[in-house]
Amino acid sequence: MKINVIEEQDIAEIVTNRKNRDAVQYDVIDERVKSIVQTIRRDGDEAVRGYIKSLDGVDLNNVVVSAQEIEEAYTRVSDDMMAVLTEAKENIQTYHAKQKETSWYSHNADGVWLGQQVTPIVRIGVYVPGGKAAYPSTVLMNIMPAVVAGVSDITVTTPVQPDGTVNPMTLVGADLAGASRILKIGGAHGIATLAYGTESITPVDKIVGPGNAYVARAKKYVFGDVGIDMIAGPSEVCVVADETANPAYVAADLLAQAEHDELASAVAVTTSEAIASAIQTEVERQMKTRDRQAILQESVTNQGAIYVTTDLEMAMTFVNAWAPEHLELQISHPFEWLPSVKHAGAIFLGHYTPEPLGDYFAGPNHTLPTNGTAKFSSPLGVYDFMKKSSVIYYTDDALEQVRQQVEQFAGEEGLDGHRDAVRIRFDEK
């Protein structure tokens, strides 16, 4: 992991290069996604089964996970893991309950009532990546906010394994969280099925959850017909470390992020060249003990970096320019510096708050904005599963008090129909 001593004028170029690290030509993927989506819209269940056979190598008669399969999955999850899943679910539910908004109404003038009605989305779809791998944390993080919001119909879809089953951890996590049904459909064909439905599957109103490039591009393609949460890019962590930081802790947290995939970006920003050198040494030492050697080597070499800044103010300038997905402040007074953080997906304070704590257990959502989008978007939350309607009520007397203003507005815009919709209510008086 290379050490770079930087000046403030270097930050813009560094951030630009980091945002372009996954600049992939998606033309081929987009054409394939378009074909898959259009075919499923046209041919329904037959097309879904066809894609599962051709892309996943499995011949399925029924794409819906049965109650018996879910029961069997519980027998394959240890009691210890069930206890962890249950506690994590409770932490996530408790945290997200504080995000829930309520309807409100006001009566500020005679004959006028205004308000906002907040209601949950009716049907949502959750995409869970995996096949051989299992991501129960992703299941909980994507379903629990919807449950708290009051969503009544939750469809989970996930890739089928070669033997025609779904990983038991995924099944147990989804059932524990409150999924209405679980489908054995992965990839772009899973997204298309959620978005448009088939003869046997009801379409959803919004799709959330991470996936590979085909999943991400499919979500982008169906957006507008359904809602989506975000288009997530490669994962990121930025660890800000001062002279009080433990280089071993910093290195461990960098490697925890780098092991996601080759494009994962693990970056340390420190005010101390001595700490930078120690972090570099620790990364090399610890990396030799990790399992995912090939991924780590490529991620650390090509996407990882240690930047040395003149002070913490400059470090925060870097943070806010990049707007990282995960930000750790391994510094002596993290709460004092928290107000300086303007853009970050999730913020981890102090030396004993590693990023995996947020991934699995603490409660805040781990579905976070990446690639600088934290400048304008937020972690997945209850608000993503709710919608708002404006409520307006005027009596005849109240409308008469403002009719002249409304009619003048309509006249200025050349919309006589708008004007007359108000005027007709008084012409008969």
Automatic annotation (TrEMBL):
Transmembrane segments: none
Pathways involved: Amino-acid biosynthesis; L-histidine biosynthesis; L-histidine from 5-phospho-alpha-D-ribose 1-diphosphate: step 9/9
Binding site for substrate: S235, Q257, H260, H326, D359, E413, H418
Keyword S-adenosyl-L-methionine belongs to the record: no
Secretion signal span: none
UniProt remark on cofactor binding: Binds 1 zinc ion per subunit.
Positions bound to Zn(2+): Q257, H260, D359, H418
Single GO MF descriptor: histidinol dehydrogenase activity
Active-site residue list: E325, H326
Protein name: Histidinol dehydrogenase
Record InterPro entries: Ald_DH/histidinol_DH (IPR016161), Histidinol_DH_CS (IPR001692), Histidinol_DH_monofunct (IPR022695), Hstdl_DH (IPR012131)
Coiled coil: none
Similarity-based family: Belongs to the histidinol dehydrogenase family.
Organism: Alkalibacillus flavidus
SUPFAM superfamilies in the cross-refs: ALDH-like
Gene responsible for this protein: hisD
